[in-house]
Design a protein that fits this description.
By secondary structure, this protein is an alpha/beta fold. It has one domain: Response regulator (Rossmann fold, 3-Layer(aba) Sandwich), CATH 3.40.50. 46% of the residues lie in helices and 19% in strands.
Length: 149
């Protein structure tokens, strides 16, 4: 299964080793237009967006994931990882829960130490906790029946 990691400033560089351990083939991309093009080009089985506060580029990537999850017959697994304070913002951007429930999973990454630590550092510290959560989501996603028209 192919996994697209969408992040800016190389924050997603911490994830590929863990994703390989989970049996995924990681591909990394920037956010904004680059992320949208990567989603359209790869049509990945799994998408992970590292959402930063206040980044308009991340909002563009989130919208692309939202559109893909609404259109896809067999929806890819989408995971949005952000610090705890941004989860309500992401929920608000996604709109009514009925549109993304079961399609877009939100994972809160609590700040590690001081709040100004970058998301990449937080992920490095929390990758041990993140791996079992992603593993469970993958198992649950693979068991879901494919919807046909």
């Amino acid at each position: 299964m192919q996994c697209l990691v969408i992040s800016h400033n190389g924050d997603g560089d911490q994830l590929p080793a863990m994703l390989i351990e989970l049996g995924l083939i990681p591909v990394t991309s920037g956010t904004g237009r680059e992320g949208v093009e990567a989603i359209e080009h790869y049509k990945p089985d799994v998408m992970i967006l590292l959402y930063h506060s206040g980044s308009s580029q991340d909002v563009v990537a989130l919208r692309a994931i939202q559109v893909l999850c609404r259109q896809a017959q067999s929806s890819p697994l989408a995971v949005v990882i952000s610090d705890k304070g941004q989860i309500p913002v992401v929920r608000n951007l996604l709109g009514p829960k009925k549109h993304y429930a079961g399609k877009v999973n939100l994972l809160a990454c609590p700040p590690v130490g001081h709040r100004t630590k970058p998301l990449a550092e937080q992920l490095q510290v929390l990758s041990g906790k993140l791996k079992p959560v992603l593993h469970a989501l993958l198992n649950q996603h693979q068991r879901q029946p494919v919807m046909t028209a």
